[in-house]
Amino acid sequence: MFLSPWVLGATVLTLLPMAVSLYLSFTDYNLFDPPSWVGLRNYTQMFTEDARLYRSVGNTLLYVFIAVPLQLALALAAALALKSMRRGRSFYRSAFYAPSLLGASMSIALVWRAIFNDGGTVDNLLSGVGVHIGGWVNQPGWALLSVALLTVWQFGAPMVIFLAGLQQIPQEMYEAAAVDGAGPWRKFASITLPMLSPVLFFNLVLQTIQAFQVFTPAFAISSGRGGPADSTLFYTLYLYERGFTSSHMGYASAMAWMLLLAIGIVTAVLFRTSKSWVFYANEEGG
What we know:
Subcellular location: Cell membrane
Oligomer: single chain
Family: Belongs to the binding-protein-dependent transport system permease family.
Transmembrane segments: 61-82, 94-115, 142-166, 187-206, 249-271
Helix content: 55-70%
Domain ABC transmembrane type-1: 57-270
Distance between the termini: 42 Å
Membrane topology: Multi-pass membrane protein
């Protein structure tokens, strides 16, 4: 009885739409006429005829490889700084966490676009020190980086998780290492990272999954076109374009299922490789 609201919501809002999407991925559907069965044509077209699809995959992978490591590194650095802070910890923790609440909104993405536009704040600051790039969002080589930096700026959520993990590490381990003459870097490499590895793994999986689904920043910065020169054409943005702009909803549904499969494979690989670097204190021999 208590589970029934959740079961009903999951069925109506998740499982049923997924089943409909799976069916539509084998059809030609334009949102207006009844879907017609085409079998595997949408999937074969994805791999053999759609060059922009491969461009969107490349952009997405590059974005993931840039944004996720930088975001986690900054989150860990901020968590380490907050752990050693004696006064004002609550204020700075809230201040650092705020971008994670606001960064996914369209309004923040539009502000970010204005900051990195030609004549924007970043352009003026760089010009003041003799670096003339122009508007990042208008340069094919810099537009993707501007989107990645917006994700890096939202480091508050993984930072809070890192901070909780740091507070669970026994202080006695650091004191014993200090007695043995270990310095700060030695303590970080031999104590902090191994003890924090489960938390690091959790953040890595979570942020990687979210990065593969990036949409709002790219949509706002490129005005929904993935420009300039398709440099910000991420997979989800191209999916949206095929489904709602071109009205090829069957093809977009096939793209969505391929994205689900890709995220599942990446997550499985992360779990598989975690056995070699994630340390759990309750493991035998740990």
